[in-house]
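Weekly sync, protein design subgroup
Attendees: M.S., D.O., the rotation student, P.L. (late)

Item 1: inverse folding check
M.S. brought a backbone from last month's batch and wanted to see whether the design step gives back something sensible before we order anything. D.O. pointed out we never logged the input encoding, so this time it goes straight into the notes. Structure tokens as presented (228 positions):
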């Protein structure tokens, strides 16, 4: 249920936050938001790939706002990698206040043409990655565990059967984790956000497809200010 009153910002002063999919468009958008809103915050961006020049420059920009920002290469779909990531953050920063799980992969293709390898690659970050992160942080007194899901998990999308299934899993897991929290087996609020297409997100469409999306569904890309 949504809160009865207007919520305050979830980011707090000197908070420690982990963002998976940290090299992606939304990962950097939210890192910038935390850096701006939460004084002396620590932001750990985690991802499988190394950072290129423009993204490194983004991190320097966030640091100029007073935040401590780090990028760690980690594959959270690997159980040991996810466990090491959480342990490293707790040891080096004395705790962890919130997790944003934004990692995701798309390999668009009609299901008849999709290979098993493609399907497993798409499921891995949102299914294995989520379970691994949750289990690795089950004893951490988190304020929140936010999952970046997608409208495709509710509405489906041509060529994205695997991606739709992965996001539907995230939505269901948010309910499951909330039940665990209610019984004292987890900490913090869990919410799965079924995002539409973002203007500044990492998964972009060309102008023709954006126009087609608007004509067929009435949906337009979500602006950054509104999303945040």
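Designed sequence read out in the meeting:
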């Amino acid at each position: 249920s949504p809160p009865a009153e207007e919520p305050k910002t979830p980011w707090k002063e000197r908070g420690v936050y982990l963002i998976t999919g940290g090299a992606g468009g939304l990962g950097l958008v939210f890192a910038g938001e935390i850096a701006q809103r939460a004084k002396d915050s620590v932001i750990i961006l985690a991802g499988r790939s190394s950072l290129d020049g423009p993204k490194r420059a983004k991190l320097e920009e966030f640091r100029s706002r007073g935040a401590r920002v780090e990028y760690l290469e980690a594959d959270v779909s690997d159980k040991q990698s996810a466990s090491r990531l959480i342990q490293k953050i707790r040891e080096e920063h004395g705790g962890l206040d919130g997790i944003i799980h934004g990692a995701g992969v798309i390999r668009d293709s009609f299901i008849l043409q999709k290979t098993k390898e493609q399907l497993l690659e798409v499921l891995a970050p949102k299914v294995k990655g989520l379970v691994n992160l949750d289990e690795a942080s089950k004893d951490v007194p988190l304020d929140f565990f936010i999952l970046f899901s997608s409208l495709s998990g509710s509405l489906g999308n041509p060529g994205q059967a695997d991606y739709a299934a992965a996001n539907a899993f995230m939505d269901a897991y948010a309910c499951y984790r909330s039940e665990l929290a209610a019984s004292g087996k987890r900490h913090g609020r869990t919410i799965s956000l079924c995002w539409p297409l973002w203007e500044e997100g990492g998964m972009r469409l060309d102008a023709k497809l954006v126009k087609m999306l608007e004509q067929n569904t009435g949906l337009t890309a979500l602006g950054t200010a509104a999303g945040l």
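Discussion: The mean pLDDT is 91. Residues 161-182 form the longest helix (22 residues).
Action: P.L. to compare against the previous round before Friday.
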